[in-house]
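Thought: the user wants the 3D structure for the chain below. I'll pass the sequence to the structure tool as-is, report back what it returns, then summarize two notable features.
Action: structure_tool
Action Input:
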Amino acid sequence: MAAVSYMSAHGQTYLTRNGQVSFYSKTPMEDIKAVNKQVYAAIDLSTKTVAFTLLLKAFLFDKQLMQDHFNENYVESDKYPKASFTGSFKENIPATPGKYPVEIQGQLTLHGVSQPVKIPATLEIMPKGLSSTAIFTVRPSDYNIKIPSLVKEKIASQITVEVSANCSTVK
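Observation:
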């Protein structure tokens, strides 16, 4: 949140509190999906920086039991309540409407562990804001998320993460 607050004080910044992050785990035994629509995002085109933060308990699952296991057993959301990403990109984004691919390099923090990541994303300049989308994968083992052997075949070793945020201009 501090990174987001810092960014909003400088440059051409776009913000939203209603970004969306979803993840998908597909295995032969079970598919698991969850969506979080309470994602705080800030994108600053002048400094070429991006920041996202979310509360892990805001992920909603199809089955309550999956949601309980996610929060209690895997991400331990009482102990590690937030996930965040801060990063930057090198591409110049013009102020004219259009879609612009970027590669964002930064730190993804989850379960108390920060890892460097490169995320291909698209920034779309719109008449009244900016939209961003990205799809990437995360390995729970990279973030010290332990999957018990009893359910290991039900949870993919790589989880697909989709991010989308429609941001408004900060004036």
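Final Answer: Structure generated. Strands lie at 13-26, 31-44, 49-55, 60-61, 82-88, 98-110, 113-126, 129-138, 159-169. The longest helix spans residues 64-74.
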